[in-house]
Amino acid sequence: MDNHDLAEAWAYHDGTKHSVESVHRSTHRLEWAIMPRSFKVYPDLEPIPLLRDFTSSTRPALAAIGDPGNAPGDGPRLDRAAIARLLYFSAGVLRRKTYAGGEIYFRAAACTGALYHVDLYLISGPLADLEAGVYHFGPHDFALRRLRAGDHRAAVVAAAAGEPAIAAAPVIVAGTSTFWRNAWKYQARTYRHCFWDDGTLLANLLAVAAAVDLPARVVLGFVDDELNRLLDLDTEREVTLSLVSLGRGAPSPPPAPPAPPLGLATLPLSTREVAYPAIRRAHATSSLTTAKKVAAWRGSLAAPVFAPPGGPTVRLAPSVTTAEPLETVILRRGSTRAFAREPISLAALSTILRASTRGVPGDWTARPDLYLIVNAVEGLDPGAWVLDREGERLALLRAGDFRREAGHLGLGQALPAEAAACVFWLVDLKPVLERYGNRGYRAAQLEAAIEGGKSYLAAYALRVGATGLTFFDDDVTSFFSPHAAGKSVMFLMAFGHPERRR
Ligand SMILES: Cc1cc2nc3c(=O)[nH]c(=O)nc-3n(C[C@H](O)[C@H](O)[C@H](O)COP(=O)(O)O)c2cc1C
Question: What do you get for the CA distance between the two ends of the chain, in Å?
């Protein structure tokens, strides 16, 4: 089990690709009798209620969404109200919908299948109105539950090999996935969804922090076992995916108190669970085992050089501004279920692309390439395009009406065929895995998903609709080749005006 045995990441990635044939071959049926609960509930721990009387931020939403995360200063003081706002607008339940089989609790960020397998934990120093501790956030009753008393941040700093943002943070947020809550529907492909769904959530969290100039940084370099032990996770079923530092300027935390196993009861998710060994293997083989390895892991990768395809190019024209605050945009967001075949403007598309690609504050870089199918964008020929990130231009790969192809690539769904534009995040995994080992796979998926999550929010800031989509992996690469040859699809979004009549 070694992070640098790259055959493992490739085996997982290749083994979980969708193709026409794999979908056709699949005999998987949803077993409604064992549909998992979408919340982790500790029945024996006292809830510490959080209040919902938030004051809205004043920074325009688009500025917060596009913020690359290098704000100076320590940010506003963190207290329970500030924590409540951050948690509500990134992982809170915003809407409930009743259907024949029960109720869906829709959350602030999009999630594959609305299955919400990602949980948030806080590792906090002492705040004005919250004692130091390790807390679990329960979106079901909007409350924290304290798993451990005392200031455990030093354990996280050690696990993250002294990462400076973590070391200076008054509060650290850990994101985990309980695989079964998503694998019930998506089987082994869930390991990709871990980072997709953590990514959309983190896009919200970063934006909600940026809206009040609170520094936040995503950290993927940490000793997995140490975090999982601190959070007392049953690692056969739940693992830590990411850390986010919140705030800056905290004095060095004191030595961490002991953190023995807790064995806390949680409500069963379903009467039976199915394990998917490919998920656990992908996680184990991308785990870091010592702080020394973490320190060597961390760092940036040279940005890939953009190869101009040689055809016409169009400069991005991100001219749209809005004064609306981020919170209103998040409350309005909800995946578009049908698109009208109406165009969006080049200004809107440019604004979405710009807000999504200004950089993810993190301890790695995978720098995905964005490929587009333009169906109906005023000022842009329909066709296949690629984004030159540095040059802020779109370059035409092939002109043509590709609605039918877009529908096929998005797993044969109507949404991408009817959308005004589809954006595919692709990564050349080879150099990423060579630099970061198998953990580069986590990093590439997460970075694309955070950018995808930003694009969701930017679209709704502009009152354009959006939805995440899944895809036929190799068909997407072939469609954008030769430019995309060798690259792997990480994430797909479709944008357009929602169909109002249906
Ligand atoms: C990465 C990702 C992939 C998704 N794939 C699909 C898809 O293939 N088809 C679809 O109809 N919805 C898809 N969705 C939308 C989810 O079903 C939706 O986010 C979820 O039901 C929650 O609803 P909300 O986004 O309106 O809050 C996807 C969402 C994400 C984040």
Answer: 51
Ligand 1, closest atom to CA 200? Answer: 31
Condensed to tens digits (0 to 9), the pLDDT of residues 109-119 reads: 999 999 999 99
CA 252 – ligand 1 centroid, Å: 41
The closest-lying atom of ligand 1 relative to the alpha carbon of residue 109 is: 27
In the reported structure, the alpha carbon of residue 468 is separated from the centroid of ligand 1 by a whole-number distance in angstroms of 5
DSSP one-letter string for 419-435: SSEEEEEEE-HHHHHHH
Report the separation in Å between the CA atom of 199 and the middle of ligand 1, taken as the mean of its atom positions.
13
Most informative mutation of 181, 356, 470 for ligand 1 (most atoms within 8 A of CB): 470
Q: What tens digit of pLDDT does each residue of 462-476 get? A: 999 999 999 999 999
Both tokens of residue 173?
A: 């947020």
Strands 377-378 vs 344-345: parallel, antiparallel or unpaired: parallel
With tokens 């998503």, the residue in question is 182
Q: What is the pTM of this model?
A: 0.98
Amino acid symbol at 502: R
Specify the amino acid at residue 7.
A
Rounded Cα distance, 437 and 285, in Å? 9
